[in-house]
C-alpha cells in the first residue's frame, strides 16, 4: 500500500466514436472505437490515505474555476468507482482525492476520460495492486466513462467492442506508439459551457433506426481508419472521421428527445475549414458530445490553421495537441 500517489492522464479524441452500449452495467459498447491521446488536455489526480478521514473527500479544480468539493451526480460517479475498487480488492481505507483539469470540462473534450482513467490508475497504485494494461483498461471502462479506457495505453488506441457477455474481451490497447505519425488535434473552443445532457444519457437514447444505419457501416469505417493509419494518409483518415462524427450527431439529433450538441459556432468553424481545404490546407473536423470542434491535421498545415482559426468569429481558444502517452503514475510516497 502507498500513502500518496499522483497520476497524470490524457483526454483522448476518437476517430471512430463510441456511441451506444449493449450493456449499461458493464459499459459494453455497441462498436469498436479508435482514438489518439491528447498532449495538452489532461487531468492530474492525487489520492491520499489518511487515518483521520471518516469519509472519502473528493476535491476538484476545473479549468478556470476555484478548487471545490465535488457534489451531485459527478460525486456519485467518482465515489462509485472508488467504492467498487475498494470492495473488489479488499481495501479498507478512506481516501482524499484532489483532481485538477487543465482544459474546459464537459464540453466535448473528454474530461471524463482523463478524470476516470487517472482515478482508476491512482486507486490501483494506492492499493498496491499490479494489473496488466488490459486489466487496467477494463477497470477503467467499468468506471462508467467507457471512453476513459482508451486513455490508459500510449499513442493511438483501439478499444475492442468484444463479443463476450462478461466484458473480459472489451479492452483498449495501443495500435501505434506516440512517435509513429506526427498527427495534431487542434481543439477549437467555441464554448466553455457545460453540456446539458451528458454522454451517459446520449448512449441510452441511441436506439433509433439511424443508429442501426450507423452500426451497419461501422466495421467498414474502423477498417478504413486502420488502413489510413497504416499508410499515414491524412485525407483518407479525414474523410472517415468526418463521416463518423456526422453519423453520431445524426443519431443524437434524431433521438427522442433530440440531443443537439452542435451550435451555430460549430458550423461556422466547419464552413471555414472547408474553405481552407479548397485553398489546399489539410485539416479534418470531428466533434464529440459538445459544440467544440477538433481539427486533425499534420505538421505542415498546423500553424497556418491555428493562425486562421484565431480570426474566426466565435472562436475563444485553440488548444494544440499532439499524440501522447497514456496514464502515468508521476509521484508516489
Ligand atoms: O465515455 P463516455 O460515456 O463519456 O462517452 C464518450 C462519447 C464520445 O466522446 C462522444 C465519443 C468517444 O468515443 O469519445
Largest sheet: 8 strands, mixed
Shape: globular
Structural class: alpha+beta
Poorly predicted segments: none
Order of helices and strands: EEEEEEHEHHEEEHHHHEEHEE
The total of beta strands comes to 14
Rounded to an integer in angstroms, the radius of gyration calculated over CA atoms is 19 Å
Give the termini distance in whole angstroms.
Answer: 10 Å
Give the strand content: 25-35%
The percent of residues in helical segments reads 25-40%
Q: Overall mean pLDDT score?
A: 94
Number of helices: 8
Q: Which ligands does the model contain, each kind named once?
A: (3R)-3-hydroxy-3-methyl-5-(phosphonooxy)pentanoic acid
Q: Could you write a compact summary of the structure shown?
A:
Helices cover about 35% and strands about 25% of the residues. The protein is α+β, with helices and mostly antiparallel strands.
Can you characterise this structure?
This protein has 8 helices and 14 strands. The chain has helices spanning 72-88, 111-127, 133-141, 199-205, 209-231, 234-253, 264-278, 299-309, and strands spanning 4-16, 21-23, 28-29, 33-49, 57-61, 68-69, 95-101, 156-159, 172-176, 183-189, 283-286, 293-298, 317-322, 328-332. Strands 1, 4, 5, 6, 7, 8, 9 and 14 form an 8-stranded mixed sheet that branches. The longest helix is centred in the middle third of the chain and has 23 residues, at 209-231. (3R)-3-hydroxy-3-methyl-5-(phosphonooxy)pentanoic acid binds next to helix 4.
Helices and strands, with pairings:
Blueprint: E1 4-16, E2 21-23, E3 28-29, E4 33-49, E5 57-61, E6 68-69, H1 72-88, E7 95-101, H2 111-127, H3 133-141, E8 156-159, E9 172-176, E10 183-189, H4 199-205, H5 209-231, H6 234-253, H7 264-278, E11 283-286, E12 293-298, H8 299-309, E13 317-322, E14 328-332
Parallel strand pairs: 5-7
Antiparallel strand pairs: 1-4, 1-14, 2-3, 4-7, 4-8, 5-6, 8-9, 10-12, 10-13, 11-12
Helix pairs in contact: 1-2, 2-3, 5-6
Bound molecules: (3R)-3-hydroxy-3-methyl-5-(phosphonooxy)pentanoic acid.
The site of (3R)-3-hydroxy-3-methyl-5-(phosphonooxy)pentanoic acid has 13 residues, from helix 4.
Amino acid at each position: 500500500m502507498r500513502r500518496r500517489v499522483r497520476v497524470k492522464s490524457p483526454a483522448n479524441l476518437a476517430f471512430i466514436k463510441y456511441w451506444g452500449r449493449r450493456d449499461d452495467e458493464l459499459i459494453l459498447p455497441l462498436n469498436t472505437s479508435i482514438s489518439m491521446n491528447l498532449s495538452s488536455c489532461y487531468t492530474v489526480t492525487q489520492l491520499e490515505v489518511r487515518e483521520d478521514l471518516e469519509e472519502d473527500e473528493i476535491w476538484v479544480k476545473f479549468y478556470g474555476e476555484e478548487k471545490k468539493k465535488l457534489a451531485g451526480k459527478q460525486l456519485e460517479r467518482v465515489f462509485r468507482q472508488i467504492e467498487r475498487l475498494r470492495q473488489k480488492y479488499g481495501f479498507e481505507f478512506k481516501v482524499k482525492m484532489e483532481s485538477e483539469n487543465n482544459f474546459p470540462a464537459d464540453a466535448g473534450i473528454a474530461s471524463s476520460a482523463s478524470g476516470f482513467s487517472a482515478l482508476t490508475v491512482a486507486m490501483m497504485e494506492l492499493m498496491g495492486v499490479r494489473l496488466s494494461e488490459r486489466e487496467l483498461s477494463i477497470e477503467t471502462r467499468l468506471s462508467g466513462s467507457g471512453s476513459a479506457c482508451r486513455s490508459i495505453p500510449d499513442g493511438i488506441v483501439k478499444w475492442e467492442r468484444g463479443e463476450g457477455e462478461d466484458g473480459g474481451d472489451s479492452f483498449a490497447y495501443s495500435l501505434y506508439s506516440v512517435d509513429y505519425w506526427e498527427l495534431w488535434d487542434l481543439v477549437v473552443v467555441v464554448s466553455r459551457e457545460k453540456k446539458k445532457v451528458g454522454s451517459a444519457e446520449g448512449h441510452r437514447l441511441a436506439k433509433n433506426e439511424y443508429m442501426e444505419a450507423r452500426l451497419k457501416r461501422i466495421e467498414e469505417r474502423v477498417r478504413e481508419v486502420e488502413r489510413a493509419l497504416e499508410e499515414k494518409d491524412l485525407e483518407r483518415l479525414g474523410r472517415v472521421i468526418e463521416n463518423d462524427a456526422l453519423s453520431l450527431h445524426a443519431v443524437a439529433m434524431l433521438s427522442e428527445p433530440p440531443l443537439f450538441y452542435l451550435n451555430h459556432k460549430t458550423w461556422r468553424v466547419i464552413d471555414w475549414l472547408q474553405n481552407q481545404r479548397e485553398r489546399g490546407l489539410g485539416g479534418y473536423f470531428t466533434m464529440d458530445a459538445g459544440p467544440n470542434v477538433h481539427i486533425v491535421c499534420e505538421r505542415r498545415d498546423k500553424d497556418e490553421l491555428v493562425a486562421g482559426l484565431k480570426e474566426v468569429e466565435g472562436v475563444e481558444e485553440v488548444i494544440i495537441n499532439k499524440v501522447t502517452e497514456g496514464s502515468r503514475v508521476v509521484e508516489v510516497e
